[in-house]
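Note to self: keep these together.
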Amino acid sequence: MCGLLPLPPQQASASVSVKASLPYFPIQINGQDMDITHSQYPFLLYKDITYLPMTWKNFQTLGIEYSWSETDGLQIWSNRNFPPPIHQAPLEQDLTSKSNASSYLVQVSDVPITMNQTEINNKTEPYPFLTYQDVTYMPLTWRFVHDLLQIDIGWSDAEGLSLVGGQNAIYSIIGDDDSSLYFYSLLSADPAKSMLKMDKSNYQIEWKNNEEKDQFIKGLSTPPHPLAGKPVELVRKDRDLYYGNIKVYTLTDSDVWESAAWGAPVHTYTVFSAGDQRVILSINLTLPIAAIGPNYGTTYTFLIQDGNVTRLHDFNQKLDRVIPNPDGTVWIASDRLPSRKDYIAGSARVGLLDPNGTVHMVNELLHESDVRALGLTNPSLLSPEAKDGSLYVVLNGISNKDYAAQDTAGIYTLNTKLETKRLSNYIFGDYYLDKNRNIFIKHRNNTIENMSTGEIRTWFDYELAKMK
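Structure:
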């Protein structure tokens, strides 16, 4: 019976009454047509805005959580569980045998409301929360639905209003080959549904089992990428490190500190070709100690040109690619570094080394905390740059000075003159540059977009769960 209960609270104290009507257009939740005429808790229309009845079933299907208390009022937030729930059946509607009236007298809610930690002032909202039959009704505005709750909302004259939320079976992108993209699955409790394969040309999908997934991942473990550097040995004399006969760095006290339990730091040296008569050298020192989350150690990066050594202080982290360009410039790029729960802010960095040996940091020039060059970690991609040396980059729209939001988030091209061209505003999701330099975006709610062609496809959890 819990699944039939409307979302609390009961709000007999709501005093302001307004008139709402039944929507005159079709409505879908996750691909299922809603029976507005016979719904026990029907969608409503007020000020030309559609209102969603916040029942337990609707919220569970759309991946929304809530709580109610006398002190805090109504609190709403996006699903915070991992792994998220997988809905293996369509929404079960609460229906009655009689037809609903065409209009209703409803109340403006007067309880405190918080949505994803954002307080909603219902007294000043142009489209306030309403109550009817002791059920709270949420206005389906873009701000509430798309921006705060991360639910996809769409409209078409033919099919009316559609809501898509809480769809999670397709997880992150694993990799690609000539014809297909491969995704991790959150239905992997079934060994036959460990990986999803999608044809890039026609978007046909098929499940792959656990053995096939392991085999595909193993195939991605190719020899070191030619732009990812190669291991090199340095000579240590006391605390001095030499690359050939060139002194590169003198180890500090903290660099040589030894853990009583784990011993001395582990040294790793990587050299990258940076054009004629110059290289970039990366020194990593990692204490082999137990750590919660990634243990990246300490990294120092140096440019060695014509026998001279210059430390690159803006790259005190792992480099993913060093890319020589046709005009003699060189891209130096690091992808974002995973943290225990998300990614380390400011770790996605791009610099351009000019022929004179000066590094121009794109993060500084664009005032961005993170500049993510697409394709850096795709082993199937020979080079992430185009023939003219330009890159696709994603900006998160966060200032590198005070971490304030700014209107720059999006996908851009970045050329070797450090000029940018905006291709799209920022889209919440995983970005992937495939081996043909096509940009794929894995949106939330099992939605895949080929940005290069503009094609978008969505699958529902219950469809994927039934698919053999």
